Amino acid sequence: MSVVFYLLAALTVAGGLAAVMLKNTVHCALALTVAFAGLALFFLDLDAQFAGFAQILVYIGAVAILVVFAILLTKGSETPKEGVYSRNWLAGLAIAAGVFAVLGWAVLQSARVLPGPEGTPTATPVVTVLDIGHALMGRYVLPLEIVALLLTAALIGAVIVAMHEKEGAK
Amino acid sequence: MIEKADQIFVLLQHWLVSFLPAGLQPVAGVLLSVVVIVCLFPALFALAVWMERKGLGRIQNRLGPNRVGPFGLLQPIADGIKSLTKEDIVPRSADAAVHFLAPVVLVVTVFMGFAVLPMGRNMVLADMDAGLLFYFAMGASTELAVFMAGWSSRNKYSLLGAMRAVAQMISYEVVLLLSSVAVVMITGSLSLTKIVEAQNHYSWGLPHWYIFTPWGCAGFVMYAIAATAETNRSPFDLPEGESELVAGYHTEYSGFKFALFFLGEYLAMFSISGLGTTLFLGGWSAPFSWLGWVPSWIWFFSKLMLSIFVFIWMRGTLPRLRQDQLMNFAWKFVLPMCLLNLLVAGLWRFMGDGWPRWVVCSAILVLAYVGMGWGEMRRKHFGARSYRYAE
Lengths: 170, 391
Prior knowledge:
The complex is a heterodimer. The longest helix of chain A is centred in the last third of the chain and has 29 residues, at about 140-170. Chain A is globular. Helices cover about 75% and strands about 0% of the residues of chain A. Chain A has 2 domains: about 1-80, Up-down Bundle (Four Helix Bundle (Hemerythrin (Met), subunit A)); about 125-170. Chain A starts with a helix and ends with a helix. Chain A contains 6 helices and no strands. By secondary structure, chain B is an all-alpha fold. Chain B has one domain (about 95-380). Chain B has helices spanning about 1-5, 10-15, 25-60, 75-85, 95-115, 130-150, 155-185, 190-200, 215-230, 240-245, 255-280, 295-315, 325-350, 355-380; strands at about 200-205, 205. In chain B, helix 3 (about 25-60) packs across helix 11 (about 255-280), helix 5 (about 95-115) packs antiparallel against helix 6 and helix 6 (about 130-150) runs antiparallel to helix 7 (about 155-185). In chain B, about 40% of the residues are buried. The mean pLDDT of chain B is about 85. Chains A and B meet through helix 2 and helix 3 of A and helix 6 and helix 7 of B.
């Protein structure tokens, strides 16, 4: 746990908290982007270049833009008078805690499954981008193709839904 | 001697850093490189603005700047002083924090892209395994800055300009990525230095640049189209279409913040030209083997400035596209061609050496281009001009 870790952790948590607490929806989206960037920097801090850059490319480059577009196109950018807190925030908190617990448990369990000599979790395996490429194109090519097919289907479905709506509006 | 001239900046850096204690040397070396990049490219920006104004003047039968200094060469300095001393106006209803952050985020992300560009032999700031991925990650982040600028201004023209810019950048980013993927497939690496090295061979005195292969040539054309759109340059300058949107997303910016947007636009042009040079035009390698004695950085910057010249030339020549034409062009023509180009690159890789692959790959690309163009033209009905008005 170095100084860098704590700085990044502070940045990410602050971004996440701001995303929940800020009044203006677009500000929330931008704060969420800060949290995404913090996560990407975490990956880079851990020498996971591919994951880090993919995080920036996908989350900041695409997801954040998508969120912002969605806010602007649905007339939600004006701040409601009664505030943005939902009435069933307790349920939300419970669900978030549940998801966090499951993820935390999975991460803690995975430390034991990692290959390597017993009791030496510090010996981190060096994974280059080339290795990831070989793995994706070799051993995991079938899951990759299935995901690609699923995404293509989703894309075509989205286009069809949007087209239908436009015809009705005319 | 030749070796020294080629490595002059690397040697200079080592010499300067050697005065410091050993512990500080790596950090100081990186800092020095960063300072050089941060100073060099704005200087090139001043030169490019002068070149653009002179060149456009020439194309439009006028003189261009000719009052400040010889041939108006000091004009950029005068403009710089002017923008520094102008009042910085922030609209009253603007979102002050986001309005201030937008130009900063834009310039910072654009500058980051230079970190992975090999500007000469051994002249790269961060030689990463995933250099290309880093570049695209940084390129994707600039879109958010553009949106921040447009949204925070609270101005309908700014917001419309930002929406146009973001839609355009997202559409053409797909093309930009896919046209570069062909290069990665052939080289087998995401590292930009490895991509340059793979092209730095000669047969009969001619280089093995990727642009001189069927898939590379098609890829370069599509890369150039996407790069022009990505940097919001004419004929894709709809986001700041003066006749429609005043100045697009930077309408409400004045003084130094506007200068930052201007700088960001040119820096993006430099960095995307630098990447195109690296991917398709052999980076810092010489165009003929007998010119190998010329320092590598001279080649890189010559190719860079040549690309800038082509950008200026296109701006002076082509009219602006319409929004629907822009989108149709990206998704219905360039993207399918890009996907086909990926297939052709795969074919090229597995057909082995020899002339058949040249014939087959060229034939596929030319046939697809002609066929798609013919089909699109058939579907168009060119009649009398019709007008549609906003309701």
